[in-house]
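Just wondering, does anyone understand these tokens?
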Amino acid sequence: TLYSGNGGALRDLLGLIRSTNPTLVLMAEQEAEHNSANLEARVSNSLRYYGAIFDLIDSSLPLDSPVRIKIEEMFAREIRNIVACEGSDRSERHERFGNWRKMMEQGGFRSMGISEREFLQSQMLLKMYSNENYSVRKQEQDGVAALTLSWLDQSLYTVSGWAPVDVAGTSSSFSQPS
């Protein structure tokens, strides 16, 4: 588990990843806040997030689908862990993009950004393979960009690209898009 109370285990993991000198690190995370120490906040956030997840499953798969049953079981385990477990017993600790952005930057990574071409490709793929309740938006904060998949008005998953920052303070292989 990456839980250490003070974030040390996650910093160590990011340091290990950085030490391999990757060209690109792709971060994909549930766009949810399930890492609060406050149980009430975790329950409230989980209800909103997983309510949207189960709504989209309901609109996409028949009740008797074996795939649906497996997906629902997986999410049930996540919910149980978020709501019923504390401390190092809780492994589901989803964070929003803003929090991950800070952790990645503090871990020595720089955002690769999202080009207009990549954004348009994501919208095109979404239109080809999904219903109208899904959307993709480009999320930007202080020049750091990511793509977020949403169901109705609930953000679900965010994807962003990162590269290690070298000693001179520039990206190792790519330059940040303007």
In short: Residues 8-164 form one domain. DSSP finds five helices and five strands in the chain.
